[in-house]
Design a protein that fits this description.
This protein is α+β, with helices and mostly antiparallel strands. It has 15 helices and 10 strands. Strand 1 (175-182) and strand 2 (185-190) form a beta hairpin.
């Protein structure tokens, strides 16, 4: 029954989109109405079903049909329009050459004066028509870019900038600003010089200010702000409604991007510890090796192993074992830089890539991680005798033949550290 409703909605709204431009004389208004109908369809489809393959196919099919209806009125016969524009521009240049001679209607007697006035007005109107056609052509380019970014963009910042460009073109007499929220901090992506004096008011809830002639359209989800679209200048009710519809559509696109980011993060993250998994680490290690070959910038790889972890697990249970793993992952994350890569390599083994660092500094980082783990209050609470790690360390220039070689060398040194009794590291 759900599929029947989806298909019925697609056919019904598709028919409306098809017939609106044929009964509304003003084409711009007709296509705005058709676009509004598509947004209504999008909202209804979202309410009745989760996003599955049928949902996506129906949505894309109607969106493609909407673009076809809009484009068919303009693209059909564009060759003829180009020829007409070329003809008009040649006539206008001829007219401009006459005007440049400073000839006025007073220089023509009787009926000739009327003919001159007629052609003067005609060429003026033709120039206006050429400008209008060029404007519509540019609008179609911006609309196409907006549609493309809505469907395929995976970066929130780039998408919001494109939204600002689109609205700025639709409303050339107004200043458009776009703000993106990074946590609680606003980042102005567009129109910084206009919005900067009012940014605190907008972010903390003053969305409209008639004295300063701006209105803000929040982009939010469950009370969380993605950002704001801000329009400066007097706006009619129709303009406000149009921007409101655009803002709601933008919210849905931002939710799509956010969902894709969550899926991508889950694919590269270890579910227990929250740090990267082995597959992601190996891909980054391969990239770093290529960078080393290209630039000579050094890096270190460290493999950690929690001493006597199996005995602790058997004696105290898997819950305690999991807490130890999470504690060690937390210690690593809190003691490395943002561009270093830490991952769970398997079981109780962890691996760390310290990028663009010399050997002495890298060893100091690893020693600090090892010491802070063994002295942490969480570990003392979980294990009476404490818990320690062994580690093997290698620099890339010690294994320059391939990116796998550095792991083999670090692992070999880890085994040596375990043979020496554990709770220590080997780096030579």
């Amino acid at each position: 029954m759900e599929y029947v409703i989806k298909i019925f909605l697609t056919i019904f709204f598709g028919a409306i989109i098809f017939f609106v431009p044929r009964f509304v004389e003003r084409k711009t208004l007709a296509y705005l109405l058709a676009s509004f109908v598509f947004v209504v369809y999008f909202v209804l489809l979202s309410l009745i079903a989760e996003a599955n393959i049928i949902y996506v196919l129906l949505l894309l099919s109607l969106f493609a049909f909407l673009l076809y209806v809009i484009f068919s009125s303009y693209i059909k016969g564009f060759d003829e329009l180009d020829r007409a524009i070329d003809f008009l521009e040649r006539r206008i240049k001829e007219y401009e050459s006459i005007v440049s001679l400073n000839i006025s209607s007073q220089d023509f007697p009787g009926r000739s004066r009327k003919i001159y006035n007629f052609f003067s007005l005609l060429f003026s109107r033709l120039q206006d028509e050429v400008d209008r056609i060029k404007t519509m052509n540019n609008f179609l380019i911006y609309l196409t870019n907006f549609a493309r970014y809505s469907l395929s963009e995976s970066d929130k910042k780039r998408f919001l900038v494109e939204v600002g460009n689109f609205l700025e073109y639709v409303f050339p007499s107004k200043s458009v600003s776009v703000v993106m929220m990074e946590g609680d901090q606003p980042e102005i992506l567009k129109g910084k010089e206009v919005i900067e004096p009012f940014i605190s008011q907008i972010v903390y809830g003053k969305f409209e200010d008639s004295a300063n002639k701006y209105i803000s359209f929040p982009l939010s989800k469950n009370g969380k702000y993605y950002g704001f679209i801000v329009i400066f200048g007097n706006s009619s009710e129709i303009e406000r409604n149009f921007i409101f519809i655009v803002s709601k559509f933008v919210e849905s696109v931002l939710r799509r991007i956010e969902k894709e980011e969550e899926i991508e993060l889950k694919a590269v993250t270890d579910p227990l510890t929250g740090i990267y998994n082995r597959r992601y680490f190996m891909s980054r290690l391969e990239q770093n090796f290529a960078k080393f070959k290209r630039t000579g910038k050094s890096y270190a790889v460290v493999i950690f192993d929690i001493d006597k972890f199996k005995k602790i697990n058997d004696a105290l249970g898997h819950v305690v074992g999991d807490e130890i793993l999470k504690t060690f992952a937390s210690v690593i994350k809190n003691n490395i830089r943002k561009y270093d890569i830490a991952a769970r390599f398997g079981g109780d083994e962890f691996i760390l890539l310290l990028d663009e660092i010399d050997k002495d500094n890298a060893i100091n980082v690893v020693k600090r991680i090892s010491t802070r783990f063994s002295l942490s209050e969480e570990i003392k609470t979980l294990v009476e005798d404490g818990s320690y790690v062994s580690w093997g360390f290698a620099m890339v220039d010690e294994a320059p033949s391939s990116y796998e070689e550095i792991i083999k060398l670090a692992d070999k040194r880890l085994l040596k550290a375990k043979e020496l009794g554990g709770g220590r590291g080997v780096w030579e």
